[in-house]
Amino acid sequence: MALTDVKVRQAKATEKPCKLADEKGLYLLITPAGSKLWKFKYRFAGKEKKLSFGAYPDVSLLEARLRRDEARTLLTRDIDPGIAKKVNKRTQQLAATNSLESVAREWYAKFSIQWTPDHGERILRRLEKDIFPWLGNRPISEITAPELLTALRRIESRGAVETAHRAHQNCSQFFRYAVATGRAERDPCGDLRGALAPVKQTHHASITDPKEIAALLRAINTYPGTFITKCALRLSPLLFVRPGELRNAEWSEIDLDQAIWQIPAEKMKMRSKHIVPLSIQALEIFKELHPLTGTGKYIFPSVRTTQRPISENTVTSALRRLGYTTDQMTAHGFRSMASTLLNEQGWNRDAIERQLAHTDRNSVRAAYNYAEFMPERKKMMQAWADYLDGLTVGAKILNFKEA
Questions:
Q1: How, if at all, do strands 260-263 and 274-277 pair?
Q2: DSSP run (H or E) holding 245
Q3: In the annotation, is 204 catalytic?
Q4: Which residues pair with 41 in a beta bridge?
Q5: Which is catalytic among the residues 335, 354, 370, 387?
Q6: Of 65, 67, 234, 242, catalytic
Q7: How far apart are CA 390 and CA 377, in angstroms?
Q8: 81-113 pLDDT, tens digit each
Q9: Banded pLDDT at 269 (limits 50, 70, 90)
Q10: What is the Cα–Cα distance from 177 to 256, expressed in whole angstroms?
Q11: Per-state percent for the chain, helix, strand, coil, to nearest 5
Q12: Known catalytic residue: 368?
């Protein structure tokens, strides 16, 4: 039964801590000393957790319920309210000093809504690991180029040269934001051009020889891991989308009747809607998987919780389990595989590029071009799936467009 103001006010302390339950996880904890503390019990990632909302009467029953509802809203967005509370408290503490971390987090909150979830997570993780521990508490207006270089060279010294360059780029972005909002006079990152070791240009390892592709496809069909991971592996060469797009796929985006997968703009690297025509083979895999995960949000949910998709390393780790090294094949390599062979087989280059979602940099034009070359793309995706089937069973390798 829900609490009332009268019941809360008249509640008395006992020799042992006493709990008075309200609704939806909220309860009042009365200590032997007479303190009345609001608590919220919830589950996140399969674990039971508790969150404090303050003491009565400073926090009324109505206010406690409002805070509970805010926490429940965060849970529906796959956010741990306990972690969110700590982050907000930390941000508020730093905001008064215009510290580097507070400005960076403000910049992140403002612009991350334009990024894919994976991209945003990588940036924040990079800053929290490599920049904030050393420079986060300092006023951003006092940070000098040599200090910033010292932090970046810590990253460089462990061999993560590309990460150091990306961190440098992110720092320049929030420093420019600090300048624009009056918290700093200039961006010291510009003084560091040429100070870091150059990045060696590398490409995602990929298999493009038909005989080796055939061996890979046969290996995938015998993958000994979970069925969900095996389906993700089987779909990777058929759809050749980016790994992040595949792992974050939702059932609401799949139209089995129309045989298309519509990926919303906010999930795409280039921030424009993308359509993936589904071959007969791809449809069969989705239909086979639907009884297992179709009642949830994600097509490929995590083994730990259905509220999150598989990790970004799942497909690559599966390839390693099959015996393929980093230098041989990556999850991203399926895109290079398809691009190389589709071009070699004479398909329209523009149709291939559109299917790879290498969209026009002009955001307005790209917003209307997601269905460009669709008839040819549908024909190409089915022919590609048929070609892969032929390789798998050991058929003679032909120019599949002509065939």
A1: antiparallel
A2: helix 243-247
A3: no
A4: 50
A5: 335
A6: 242
A7: 20
A8: 888 888 777 666 655 668 999 999 999 999 988
A9: confident
A10: 45
A11: 55, 10, 35
A12: yes
Nearest by Cα to 275 from 208, 159, 204, 357: 357
Q: Per residue in 204-255, pLDDT tens?
A: 789 999 999 999 999 999 999 999 999 999 999 999 999 999 999 999 999 9
DSSP 303-366: SS-TTSB--TTHHHHHHHHTT--TTT--TTHHHHHHHHHHHHTT--HHHHHHHTT---S-HHHH
Q: Name the catalytic one among 90, 165, 166, 269.
A: 269
In angstroms, rounded to a whole number, what is the distance separating the alpha carbons of residues 200 and 159?
11
- The pLDDT tens digits for 372-388 are 899 999 999 999 999 99
- Active site includes 242? yes
DSSP 59: S
pTM: 0.58
Residue 185's SS3 state is coil
Q: Which amino acid is at 25?
A: G
Residue 10 has pLDDT above 70, yes or no: yes
Task: Give the number of other CB atoms < 10 A from CB of residue 45.
Answer: 12
Indicate which residue of 50, 89, 304, 368 is catalytic: 368
